[in-house]
Amino acid sequence: MTGERRKFRREGADTRRQALVLATLDLIAEQGVRGATVRAIAERADVTQGLIRHYFSTKDELVQEAYLAHMAGLTEQTFAGVAERETARERLAALVVASVTPPVVDSASVGLWAGFLNHVRQDARMRAVHAQTYHDFRDRLEGLIVAALEEAGRGPDAGQARRLAIACNAVIDGLWLEGGALPEAFGPDELTGIALTAVGAILQLDLEEAAKT
Amino acid sequence: MTGERRKFRREGADTRRQALVLATLDLIAEQGVRGATVRAIAERADVTQGLIRHYFSTKDELVQEAYLAHMAGLTEQTFAGVAERETARERLAALVVASVTPPVVDSASVGLWAGFLNHVRQDARMRAVHAQTYHDFRDRLEGLIVAALEEAGRGPDAGQARRLAIACNAVIDGLWLEGGALPEAFGPDELTGIALTAVGAILQLDLEEAAKT
DNA sequence: GTCGTAATTATGCAAGCGTATAATTGTTCG
DNA sequence: CGAACAATTATACGCTTGCATAATTACGAC
């Protein structure tokens, strides 16, 4: 019984890095940050742990890249299908609906986000990623809000637009969070209706009709 | 130089348990869950680590109790001073303001909450505490909303009341979260104004005037 | 007082962690 | 075909972790 050395295939750097990032996200989502050990990540990505050090000089570096990937994916999922809509109001409604619907609303995704938050509070680079993601999303939301209001003949000034975007973003974030953290607390389409009504009330726009398109 | 054994005082069980819980919360808030090791907690509480096992049969038990204490404290802080107000609308406004103002809005507090969330997703007992805290807060909020609307001559039905409470709760949660996670992103009283306007818009009530009382 | 006991300290252990480094092996290029 | 090189595996080290257990000590009861 000679201990046989494991066979392996060579892969490009991008492929391997991506696989490791994906494995990291899976593990954090499933078992929290504690479960995402170097050994577990390597096993999930079907490599040995030494390889991680070959692509990331430290584990924090890997975690940081995973965070970036997760946040980018979240924003992308949320805005998918928004641009196709005809009117600005419909685009806004589509964004609101997507924000509180799977796959964006998801227990694992919220857990992932929460797991990262403490890293964010301690690492300056991760804090920068966090701030950038947040402002990026809010700016795009603000753009949609301004367009929808102008479409309705009401152009808000800059200060108003900012405040409206913050408020709408808060509703969306709050519902996203609660929907992910307590999935069984809400009915199937309940969050969608509440989100449209609430954002509509804040902006004084009828979004519920616009969402049906 | 004989290694001198450490002097100590005997304390009641309640005192020590509370001290350990407080030390745990401090550490999680400051350094995240990773920093809250048994040894660090003991040092912060000025005892040796063995004592923790004397009061809590496992570390998770201590963490669970700390979570309970934190959530209870948060709710208590939020509702402090609400009952004293004259009208229901003023009470509601006071609650909204308190929810997005320090000490409730606080980076460490949000970090603490996020740090617990992953424990919550994995431990059934912690999930129960989480759900209970959330529903408790939302029910009290719903009570205030119904009272304020009735005061204004508009009594919502049960379904409406529930949806309004969920929406207002989402605004509050979202602003609480963002205010705590990105303190520098908002002006001093900005969150207060936005919260009052947004909740007021959802309920179609003027809360900004009521908050001045 | 001194005695009993519960509170507290001291010490140790096995497991898991991130990281470092040396040994192999697949791949590419002449 | 063979040599060079990077990708990958294998192994090990030092540290920290949560938990266990034995040794001490403060404090109240009598």
TrEMBL record, chains A, B:
- Listed GO molecular functions? DNA-binding transcription factor activity; transcription cis-regulatory region binding
Family annotation (InterPro entries): BetI_C, DNA-bd_HTH_TetR-type_CS, Homeodomain-like_sf, HTH-type_TetR-like_transc_reg, HTH_TetR, Tet_transcr_reg_TetR-rel_C_sf
Annotated coiled-coil positions are none
Q: According to the UniProt record, which residues make up the DNA-binding region? A: 37-56
Q: Which organism is it from?
A: Roseovarius mucosus DSM 17069
Q: Quote the protein name from its UniProt record.
A: Transcriptional regulator, TetR family
What residues does the HTH tetR-type domain cover?
14-74
Alphabetical list of PANTHER family matching this protein? HTH-TYPE TRANSCRIPTIONAL REGULATOR BETI, HTH-TYPE TRANSCRIPTIONAL REGULATOR RUTR
Question: What's in the keyword line of the UniProt record?
Answer: DNA-binding, Repressor, Transcription, Transcription regulation
